[in-house]
Protein 1
Amino acid sequence: DIVMTQSPLSLPATPGEPASISCRSSQSLLHSNGYKYLDWYLQKPGQSPQILIYLGSNRASGAPDRFSGSGSGTDFTLKISRVEAEDVGIYYCMQSLQAPITFGQGTRLEIK
Amino acid sequence: EVQLVESGGDLVQPGGSLRLSCAASGFTFSNHWMRWVRQTPGKGLEWLATIKTDGSEKNYVDSVKGRFTISRDNAENSLYLQMNSLRAEDTGLYYCARVASSGERYLDFWGQGTLVTVSS
């Protein structure tokens, strides 16, 4: 199974300041088709998870442009250019390169 | 508007069974692969099962293989999860989710979840 490791697990963030979350996979998520099967989801308090970034770096429809994703085969980063109060919640990375699909442990972002 | 509405969650004794349903609307259900994902305090988000558009392909996480069965009825725009031999560790919030496309694989819509509690 591919193990997904996120850091940090807790992220106190200041409004207006940047923030970033790391996600590492135990093996490359690069498919032979050129896609990197790594997605980022945000679960806001009391809500279901929602897609932010797919295939490593593609912003999902409706996701604010302050969110961006980058990364190589095993190391990925979610960046928030300027944190806003509505960004609080738990961020998860997920790999779908191969079954079983696996998630990171989650990173809880809170506002300082 | 895309909607996924889960139902069927309940309190059940260990060893019991439940059938979860997910009613889909606002899109062509038969065009999308679908998944079940659960959320538990102990393991966070856990993928459980995936089913192809026509139901011809299914796969499962090892922990539920042989106990859970994913299925769909495209005529009824519904997804199901039959859960047998339930254990305490199956307690959690169960989500159905739509796969955006077979090529991109991400989950673009999630339901609100249905709660399963396994306890005597």
Protein 2
Amino acid sequence: EAQVTQNPRYLITVTGKKLTVTCSQNMNHEYMSWYRQDPGLGLRQIYYSMNVEVTDKGDVPEGYKVSRKEKRNFPLILESPSPNQTSLYFCASTPFSGLAGANEQFFGPGTRLTVL
Amino acid sequence: DQQVKQNSPSLSVQEGRISILNCDYTNSMFDYFLWYKKYPAEGPTFLISISSIKDKNEDGRFTVFLNKSAKHLSLHIVPSQPGDSAVYFCAASTRKNTGNQFYFGTGTSLTVIP
């Protein structure tokens, strides 16, 4: 089944404890992206990756890191989480690099993160 | 600063009638616009998109209209069905050398009343 998977789905952690949220897609998509969803703010793009080893900042990159060493995986790293990073996180992927226009994104199921 | 705005947090419509969801944007460099639907506890799913060079795109019951001069787009759902009840997000993208950057609105919760 074609899908975007995220792990973990739920995570409660404490301030300052490094964590990684994994994202994997099995559709051979080139473009992958991370978003956070917060009440009253909608979805905001954190980072995106046009292809392996090509990443760039979205609208709210502060406090996050990403890497794209393989086409299928795009982990989101929080080196020192803080309470304001408590949010619902979505990973998404798209078949094309994005340079030829915007294509539909396939979203994962979400990861609900709570930072105490 | 929100570059894509959905000013109506919620909308209720009778089954069979038209649902109109609105979206405004501020960045004239946006070249693509998209609508997504989201059910609780699931990721958003793509509905329909439109290029900035067009003013209308239709797919079944869903039609998106783009008014570039007003920086406004709308999603029409005709006829509305109870299964359409969900949160709808408007999104826009701008092209950079490193790929497309996306901006989403805050969402409109649509309730279709049977």
